[in-house]
Amino acid sequence: MFCGFLPPVNAGEDAAARTRELDALRARIHDLQTRLDARRQQKTREERALRDIDRDISRTQKTLHQTESRLRSVRRQLSGLQRKRKAASQALSAQREQLAHEVRSAYAMGRQKQVKLLLNQEQPEAVGRMLTYFGYFSRARAEKIDAMRALLERLQVLQGEIEQKKVMLAELRGHQKARVTQLAEQKSLRTQAITALNRQLARQGGALKRLRVDEQHLQELVSSLQDLLADIPADANRNKPFAALKGTLRWPTRGRLSERFGAPRGDSGLTWQGVLIAAPEGGKVRAVAQGRVAFADWMRGFGLLLIIDHGDGYMSLYGHNQALYKEVGEWVDSGEVIATLGASGGQNRAGLYFELRHKGHPVNPRKWCRGKPLRVSG
To answer: Given the DSSP bridges, would you call strands 275-278 and 284-286 parallel, antiparallel or unpaired?
Structure first.
């Protein structure tokens, strides 16, 4: 029986051992996928073209997502530097005004007070004390001048850092623009690939057979993943067992339930083993609970598919994504963004195919998720 994945790494755990564990996990899942592919019918040229384009779009979208994250970070840094420069400029203006006032006062008085002190018939102790005060005032003015000089140097440094961030911002915007153009070109190629695939299916009359085979392959993949990882101990750091979350899970995305669990799939004689949430392309897909990614790749009929293991035989599946942000072996938290909505796998409309399984068997997501997808906060 599949029990889950190793718990998150403790602070004292050896980094090299952690890397070896992750590499071994990915290698085993890669070998599993290779064996499953070898037993399936060879993909047609149209299917391979669609798979490759979907993968390219995912990589481009992921890079674009990373670029946008860096843009936000650089903008925050630039804003912080500009605030510091403004504060330093205000402090410098205040110091200049105060020093100018003291210089004007000193000029108006000249050295008369010191001369009068020396000529007056006052006690020598009082004269010495007043002269010391005058020395203090002079040194204080000199310190203020030094502080102003330091502020000027600080302003020059801040201005240099601001200019560097502006250059970096411009470069990132250029990269972003290029990625957006590349993404548009890849989507155009995907449209052509889907058209070619649909023509090929129409010629062969294999749409129904393909649908049944796709479901069988998914079942085989999930069962094989469970068998493969059966000897890995459960996560001791989970807050709650997945079974205790029934009825409380948040839907993985906002949208409309266009296909419901158990409903007939047209005239195929098959039923939906999950739900299809219709939503605009590019929206966020979030993990419904904590777990570890067990699969993240393209699969015929489901497009870019991500499977998360939650322990105790429970898995959540997210299909037809535009981009996958997580890789096999990575831990994810409840509500963490793991992908973006898309239409990969040859879909005509964007949306998310979402399944929950227990020991390989599909369960109704509506009994596990509260409310409706439209009520899930973004």
So the answer is: unpaired
pLDDT of residue 362: 95
Q: CA separation (Å) from 176 to 62, 78, 295, 315?
A: 12, 18, 28, 35
Q: Tokens 């040859």 label which residue?
A: 346
Joined tokens for residue 218 = 């998914």
Rounded CA-CA distance 316/126 in Å is 88
The number of folded domains in the chain is 2
Question: What is the CATH number for 297?
Answer: 2.70.70.10
- CATH number of the domain enclosing 60: 1.10.287
CA distance 166 to 369: 45
pLDDT digits (tens, 9 = 90+) for 83-126: 877 887 787 777 777 767 766 666 555 554 555 555 555 555 55
> Do 110 and 192 belong to one domain?
yes
- How far apart CA 302 and CA 283 sit, in angstroms, is 18
Q: Residue type for 363, please?
A: V
185 and 232 housed in the same domain: no
Q: What is the pLDDT of residues 180-189, one digit of tens each?
A: 777 777 777 7
Within this chain, do residues 241 and 308 fall inside the same structural domain, yes or no? Answer: yes
pLDDT of residue 358: 94
Prediction pTM value: 0.66
